[in-house]
């Protein structure tokens, strides 16, 4: 017997199959199981305004950030070009002022 997967959005186990699609009654998400593998594999990171970020985007800091273990500060408005998205607590890997740092997406906006 084929098992029905959990919802990729809300992770509910109360999903059901309707023809070729799966449906979640809790969040009303419908998905094609053939396309579900590509949706769950991609990392989705949103900036402070809710815009989706992608590898290679440019970002701008929205507030001053003190660097841990250092006396230097990254100023509001500093720009990073060509970011890279990574898994973990700090989702953005980039260079600002020739320093390689990792940032949380809630402190940046898409340029």
Automatic annotation (TrEMBL):
Xref: InterPro entries: YjdM (IPR004624), YjdM_C (IPR013988), YjdM_N (IPR013987)
Protein YjdM N-terminal domain span: 3-32
Pfam families attached to this UniProt entry: YjdM (PF03831), Zn_Ribbon_YjdM (PF08274)
Protein YjdM C-terminal domain span: 45-111
Family: Belongs to the YjdM family.
The protein's name in its UniProt record: Alkylphosphonate utilization protein
Provenance organism: Frischella japonica
């Amino acid at each position: 017997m084929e098992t029905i997967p959990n919802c990729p959005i809300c992770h509910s186990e109360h999903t059901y199959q309707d023809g070729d699609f799966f449906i979640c009654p809790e969040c009303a998400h419908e998905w094609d199981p053939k396309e579900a593998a590509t949706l769950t594999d991609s990392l989705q990171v949103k900036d402070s305004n809710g815009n989706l970020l992608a590898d290679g985007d440019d970002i701008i800091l929205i507030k001053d950030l003190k660097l841990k273990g250092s006396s230097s500060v990254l100023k509001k408005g500093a720009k990073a070009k060509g970011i890279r998205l990574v898994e973990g607590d700090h989702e953005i890997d980039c260079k600002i002022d020739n320093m390689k740092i990792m940032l949380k997406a809630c402190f940046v906006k898409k340029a």
